[in-house]
Specification:
Blueprint: H1 4-19, E1 23-27, H2 32-45, E2 49-55, H3 63-74, E3 78-83, H4 85-92, H5 98-119, E4 123-127, H6 132-140, H7 157-161, E5 164-166, H8 174-183, H9 188-191, H10 211-230, H11 239-242, H12 250-253, E6 256-270, E7 273-286, E8 294-295, H13 300-313, E9 317-322
Parallel strand pairs: 1-2, 1-4, 2-3, 4-5, 7-9
Antiparallel strand pairs: 6-7, 7-8
The structure holds xanthosine-5'-monophosphate.
């Protein structure tokens, strides 16, 4: 059986022994894994850790502020927030192919990270929130053949930066990582957040990414998430979501939920006037492993409320649709 305080002291001792007096850098994404890795490493070596948080302009609403408040303000972790929105959106201008977009975002991410890491000339280690399933998944690559979507992370960085890899979560499963996060003082709401893809809203704005589209999508997505959190749910939990506890609300009852921006205009009426505006699709799924997924049977009253709020509050969106496709054949993300 797993004893958390013992686990933490062993992990801390191991990190101290490995790193000694060296400096460590870590790419903080705001996701669960990199956040827990940051909290653990900070517990072990304090200011020898510097986190780099790259804001590519494709984050969810208030995400940058939330990450900075949590780590820099509350935990006292050194975090460099790099505002790279103009750089990312500049390179994405005119590009609509999904794989090309992913490659650009991945490449620019490495580029920004490399520049920032290069400034920390004493850094000897690159820390990553690699967890056990990631280790297994990359070991299996090649056998499964073609990549369906190229997943972006900071792979390849250690070689170019000449850094050693520090991966303190390598032996843990997701539920263990979450428990560790809570034990290290991260808020429950952050540790039990839905996963968010590295390319962010870049793969949730279909086709060309534009700042205006990202702004509309962020607002629609925030309304959807807020209503999911505020709507009670009495279904039994999926094992991976919350260790068997009954979910309190529809956010906890779904594995991933988000809005997708469709760059298609359709006609609507508002008051006496005709509108001609964009469409937002809502996606919510339940899954244990993200390899297959079911669309979530959200209550119609919840969907209706979200639709009304988005159309009334987000000028520029006049139609909301719900995605009822399973994986397979559809993927969870639309790109
Ligand atoms: P799909 O869309 O392939 O997604 O069904 C499965 C899970 O993976 C996430 N995803 C990503 N995560 N970088 C990530 O870190 C990526 O490029 C990426 N693409 C998809 C997706 O959000 C879902 O949880």
């Amino acid at each position: 059986d797993w004893n958390m305080p013992d686990y933490i002291s062993e992990a801390v001792a191991k990190i101290r022994e490995q790193v000694g007096a060296d400096e460590v850098i870590l790419g903080l994404s705001g996701g669960v894994d990199s956040s827990v890795a940051a909290a653990l490493i900070h517990r072990a070596i304090g200011d020898q850790l510097t986190c780099v948080f790259v804001d590519h302009g494709l984050l969810r609403q208030d995400e940058g502020k939330m990450v900075m408040d949590m780590f820099a303000k509350n935990l006292g972790v050194k975090v460099l927030r790099i505002d790279a929105e103009a750089q990312f959106l500049g390179h994405l201008a005119g590009v609509s192919d999904p794989e090309a977009k992913r490659k650009i975002i991945g490449r620019e991410f490495v580029e920004v990270f490399q520049v920032e890491a290069g400034k920390l000339s004493n850094a000897r280690w690159l820390a990553q929130g690699t967890i056990y399933p990631d280790v297994i998944e990359s070991a299996g690559k090649g056998k499964k053949g073609q990549t369906i979507k190229s997943h972006h992370n900071v792979g390849g960085l250690p070689e170019t930066l000449n850094l050693k890899l520090l991966e303190p979560l390598r032996e843990l499963f997701k539920d263990e990582v979450r428990k560790l996060g809570v034990a290290l003082g991260l808020p429950h709401g952050m540790v039990y957040r839905h996963p968010f893809p590295g390319p962010g809203l870049g793969v949730r704005i279909l086709g060309e990414v534009k700042k205006d589209f990202a702004d509309l999508l962020r607002r629609a997505d925030a309304i959807f998430i807020e209503e999911l959190r505020n709507t009670p749910c009495k279904l039994p939990a999926l094992e991976s979501i919350d260790a068997g506890e009954a979910p309190k609300n529809w956010y906890d009852a779904t594995s991933q939920a988000f809005a997708v921006f469709l760059p298609v205009k359709s006609v609507g009426v508002m008051g006496d006037g005709r509108t001609y505006e964009y469409v937002v699709a809502l996606r919510a799924v339940q899954t244990l492993d993200f390899m297959t997924a079911q669309w979530a049977h959200l209550p119609h009253s919840l969907l209706g409320k979200v639709s009304n709020r988005i159309i009334n509050e987000v000028r520029g969106i006049n139609r909301v649709v719900y995605d009822i496709s399973g994986k397979p054949p559809a993927t969870i993300e639309w790109e």
